Amino acid sequence: MLNVSNATKIYGQSCGECIDHTGPAVGDNQCPVCGSVVACADVDFGLHDGEVLGIVGESGSGKSSLAEILALDSDATAGDVRYDAYDGNLLETDYQARHELRNEHVGMVHQHVRDGLELDFSGGGNVAEKLLAAGWRHYGDVRERVEDLFRETEVPVSRMDDATETYSGGMQRRVQIAKAIANDPGLVVLDEPTTGLDVSVQARVLDMFRRLQREQDVATVVVSHDLGVVRLLADRTLVMRHGRVIESGLTDRIMEDPHHEYTQTLINSAI
Amino acid sequence: MILDIDAVSKTFEMHIIDGKTVPGLADVSFSVDGGEFVAVVGESGSGKSSLLKCVYRTYEPSTGSIRFRTTDGEVDLATCSDREVLAVRGSELGYASQFLDEIPRVPAVDVVARPMWEQGTDREAARERARELLAALDLPAGLFDAYPATFSGGERQRVNFARAIAPRPRLLLLDEPTSALDPETRASALDLLGDYLPASTTVLGVFHNYDVVRQVADRVLVLDDARLQRVVDVADYDPEVLA
């Protein structure tokens, strides 16, 4: 349902040879010729309905850049992304198509709550906004749908009219997930879904998301520096470094039989 | 024949210690008939767990083939795509590892029920079956809704065991599933294997205890220093014989 080939994002005026001058072989993601930063390059993968793909790597490995490209939050420099809900290359959409895709077909859960939610709006309002953008009009229907989504993501319905800034961190994350799945998207991108949450809340968010993900058969990309999160959620995993995918495979295979030198170091460094 | 393992080797390359290679399995070949129970024995480090992990593809074999005859045809688990492995795991191939690995704060009954509902069983029906299995393994009913993280080793092992057998896989891999159980609970676990799983279930299981091997296995596969030393009928198995 999703097919990504050659996804590339370069920050700066590229000299045209940045990709050859960067990557794991060179040990850097900044081009020595022109100074551009190759956030990610040559990323290929496919995703079926209901599959969960993990993307792991250290800070600066390019995993969040890739997530933003997939969620249509940022423009790619090059690449081809085919997605069931759109006829053509997802990276070359016009404003209107991109708007529609983001509202109805791709859900994103941001690493920083402020990027995903208006904190001075009510939690219910944040979720309703997504429904209104997709064409929902009837007040009663919207309210009913938001209540259902709150129940599904285990946010107390009694709090839906309170300002989002009064919610706990775990509740805010769950409201973000409710918003991301509001219009039954085929693809959800989670960027560091448990960062900043208490350990006890992390577990509940993971369990809740895994249940929803399986029930709704939604394809998911989970980006995290936390190997534990990826281990518990993802069927398959990509390991990124210096903007490239250096290893990919079944998640348990990556964790227990890592092949690449860097993956071995990464696995051995996990607490 | 349901499983045909041919010339499987697994070598680990440790980049962290200058690319040193460590053998996990060396040139192992054997086949298993449908409905057979094969016990895998050998000293620590002889490659028993590596063998199961190669079949489950948690380890990617370096060479050789692992042909598994599924209801939809044959797959080579050593070389097929990751997606094919996931599909087989989700329907016909089960594995109980030595350690329980689950999302924290999920009640024991849901840990056991999850693989069943992810394979399509109704949620409450799956929970009901999970409770029956845990009860048959003598886990106190008061623990069914508690979180396994606080359980004893033996209690956790029972949850892990129940979870692996619950969906009734056609090929079941067991890695020392009863090592932390007292003799009485161990007997319950072994009874459950016979009572709950259909006779057509094929099992490849690592065991340390000779009495257990004698009770459950049809054949015994002896590993020594990453190599297959011999495969014998259980009646002919003498743990004292090493050569």
CATH topology of the largest domain in chain A: Rossmann fold
Q: Give the spatial strand order of the biggest sheet of chain B.
A: 6-7-8-3-9-10
Distance between the termini of chain B: 27 Å
The percent of residues in helical segments of chain A reads 25-40%
Order of helices and strands of chain A: EHEEHEHEHHHHEHEHEEHH
- What is the name of the CATH architecture of the largest domain in chain A? 3-Layer(aba) Sandwich
Biggest sheet statistics of chain B: 6 strands, mixed
How would you describe this protein?
The complex is a heterodimer of chains A (271) and B (243). Chain A has helices at residues 18-21, 63-70, 95-104, 113-116, 123-133, 139-152, 169-180, 199-216, 227-233, 251-256, 261-269, and strands at 2-11, 37-47, 52-56, 78-83, 106-109, 187-191, 219-224, 236-241, 244-250. Chain A is an alpha/beta fold and 271 residues long. Chain A has a six-stranded mixed β-sheet, sandwiched between helices. A three-stranded antiparallel β-sheet of chain A has the order 2-1-4, with helices on one face. The relative contact order of chain B is 0.18. In chain B, α3 packs parallel to α5 (153-165). The longest helix of chain B has 14 residues, at 123-136. A six-stranded mixed β-sheet of chain B has the order 6-7-8-3-9-10, with helices on both faces. Chain B is globular, with a radius of gyration of 18 Å. In chain B, β4 (63-70) and β5 form a beta hairpin. Chain B has two domains: 1-92 and 169-243, P-loop containing nucleotide triphosphate hydrolases (Rossmann fold); 100-166, no CATH class. Chain A binds chain B through residues 48, 199-200, 203-204, 206-207, 210, 214, 231-232, 235-236, 249-250, 252-253, 256-257, 259-261, 264-265, 268, and chain B through 12-16, 53, 57-60, 82-83, 85-86, 101-106, 117-118.
